[in-house]
Amino acid sequence: MADGPYKYIRDADGKVSRVIRVGTRKSQLARIQTDSVVEKLKELHPDVHFEIGVCAATLVLIFQYE
């Protein structure tokens, strides 16, 4: 397997797959949207394993317009 910042897994048959981690917020809507996108990605890239991680932190951006 290649060295670097990538993660790979090996299944029971010995096939190696690249892992892509997808982050989402905790809200139900965000999770539904993320699941939908990941399902489409799986259809397009069946050789890639996707992991979904939930971010607990909240980021608030305040824009000031002058």
UniProtKB/TrEMBL annotation:
Show the GO MF annotations: hydroxymethylbilane synthase activity
Q: Which GO terms describe its biological process?
A: tetrapyrrole biosynthetic process
Entry coiled-coil feature ranges: none
List, for all copies, the residue spans of the domain called Porphobilinogen deaminase N-terminal.
20-53
Entry-linked Pfam families: Porphobil_deam
What is the protein named? Porphobilinogen deaminase-like
From which organism does this entry originate? Sinocyclocheilus grahami
Q: Which taxonomic lineage is given here?
A: Eukaryota, Metazoa, Chordata, Craniata, Vertebrata
